[in-house]
Specification:
Helix 1 packs across helix 3. Helix content is 37%, strand content 19%. It has 8 helices and 11 strands. 43% of the residues are buried. Strand 1, helix 1 and strand 2 form a beta-alpha-beta unit. By secondary structure, the chain is of the alpha/beta class. The two termini are 25 Å apart.
Length: 236
């Protein structure tokens, strides 16, 4: 039995690069699709939000002289490219997937609505929600918080390169220790950058727990759904 019936899976665009320096690594994409299929076969209703950092990141563009609004719009389009790639990889292994976009761009994807997303999930489709919130100045973290709350997910599973939340960045500080669970208040008090502040506060206010785990290790997504404690739970 799966631990959760309906989830919002947040995937890192940067992780899609795999061993590459840019773009989509087909091997990593295939591994992600296979992991998603494993939990789909368990009967889990799956909504997905993917970042676009492997192609373009609006904020870093703004730091290099891009107009912030145009930079964020470029970032939104990057998430659509990643979403199309994942939907294609899922389709190739027999999992029906639907891409919804926060900005109208038929026929590339259907325009997002909460009810359309829920209806598709209830019919067994994986729903990939792209283009962030459709607005500049919001990250895909905030987009995933918003979508998770809207689709009434029981949890947001945040797949990253690290196996949870630490007292400091484990890639920079070897003395950093890992939390198995932590409250939102403590995340905010310690200024831990689990997600950006807007996203964290939205999840806290709407009582959406976040589970942070390493998605890059094949099989980890299924372990989370089976209740193995391999990451960090953030809750009220």
């Amino acid at each position: 039995m799966a631990k959760f019936k309906r989830i919002l899976l947040k995937l890192s665009g940067e992780s899609l690069m795999g061993e590459q320096k840019y773009g989509i690594d087909e091997k990593r994409l295939g591994e992600y699709a296979q992991q998603i299929k494993e939990i789909h076969d368990m009967g889990v209703q799956i909504g997905i939000v993917i970042g676009g950092g492997n192609i373009f990141r609006g904020l870093s563009g703004a730091n290099k002289g891009f107009d912030r609004v145009k930079g964020d719009q470029m970032g939104m389009l990057a998430t659509v490219i990643n979403s199309l790639g994942l939907s294609s990889a899922l389709g190739a292994i027999g999992v029906k997937a639907r891409v919804l976009t926060a900005v109208r761009m038929e026929p590339i994807g259907e325009f997002y609505s909460k009810w359309k997303a829920i209806e598709a999930m209830e019919q067994g489709e994986v729903v990939i929600m792209s283009a962030g919130t459709g607005n500049p100045f919001f990250t895909t973290d905030t987009g995933s918080s918003l979508r998770g709350i809207e689709i009434e997910a029981e949890v947001m599973l945040k797949g990253t390169r690290v196996d949870g939340i630490y007292t400091a960045d484990p890639e920079k500080d070897p003395t950093a220790t890992k939390f198995t669970d932590i409250t939102y208040d403590e995340v905010l008090a310690r200024n831990l950058r689990v997600m950006d502040l807007t996203a964290t506060c939205m999840c806290k206010e709407n009582n959406l727990p976040i589970y942070v785990f390493n998605m890059d290790i094949v099989g980890n997504l299924k372990k989370v759904m089976e209740g193995e404690e391999i990451g960090t739970l953030v809750h009220n």
